[in-house]
Amino acid sequence: MSALNDTKFTPAVFLLTEIPGQEDFHLWVSVLFCFMYAISIVGNSVILFIIKTDPILHEPMYIFLSMLAVTDLDLLIATIPTILGLFLFNSKEISLDACFAQMFFIHSLQFIESSVLLLMAFDRFIAICNPLRYASILTLPRIAKMGLVFVLRAVAVIFPLPFLLKRYCRVNVLSHSYCMHQEVMKMACSDIRVNNIYGLFTKLLTMGLDSLLIFLSYEMILKTVLSIASNVECLRALNICVFHLCAVLIFYTSDIFLSGMYRFGKSSSPVLQILMGYISLLFPPLWNPIVYSVKTSPSNLGKLHSTLGASERQ
């Protein structure tokens, strides 16, 4: 019997689970998720529609904003079948191939979003620190090449992950309503040290490097604004940058906490891990349209850009 129990096999399906201990609030959780999905999809779709239909917004900053909205919409689409399928229709099974596909798209899109946030920080750095060369540096062909490079980077680093997960034990119950690498790899019967090392390496190579460059760019922006702008323009620049920096902090801190709990916090609460997983996955697409549409007005940025350009010419 022990030999039979230790036999390795590949399960046909994984079983998704709801938030443990919150069965009494299942209906309210379902309503909350539906509301978040509806607001996120409508918000990002409206941003894309406005940018496409208004020629004034066909500028690098708004192109990057549209790239962020597309990434958020794709991330929502990748998670809707399992999250809403579980909470609305009690659909708990997901096939192995579908789980791997969802895992690939979720992590790839998160890495792409990290890259887009870096591009948006680079856009602000050029606009504020070197405004006279802004149009010559951020040309449409160059923007397209940068976007393509970052998409290929995300696909290249995530593509090997499903192939490193070979065989699974009899436990095939996920604690989330979607597939994520940190949890799927723990069910593998094979040695997962390679997965752990490679997963940490990909995080540092992509999101770790991106976040470092973002904060360095904001540090240089702050130094430039404080050195050449008036008090009014300093406040305008800080008002713009602070809200974008909040969006960046929400995206990265939630992912860092989630990765840390899975890799180092073995005694952490499973409910806390699940909640952090939902926050890192669903909150940025909900928050980004609010921040980047309300606080990034063409008039404010145009005034700041012209003032800094005049200061640089002097």
UniProtKB/TrEMBL annotation:
The chain crosses the membrane at residues 25-51, 63-88, 100-122, 143-165, 204-222, 234-252, 272-294. Keywords: Cell membrane, G-protein coupled receptor, Membrane, Olfaction, Receptor, Sensory transduction, Transducer, Transmembrane, Transmembrane helix. GO terms for biological process: cellular response to lipid. Residues 43-292 form the G-protein coupled receptors family 1 profile domain. SUPFAM superfamilies: Family A G protein-coupled receptor-like. GO terms for cellular component: plasma membrane. It is found in: Cell membrane; Membrane. CDD domains: 7tmA_OR51-like. The keyword Cell membrane applies. It comes from the Eukaryota. It is a multi-pass membrane protein. GO terms for molecular function: G protein-coupled receptor activity; olfactory receptor activity. The keyword Phosphoprotein does not apply. Belongs to the G-protein coupled receptor 1 family. This is Olfactory receptor.
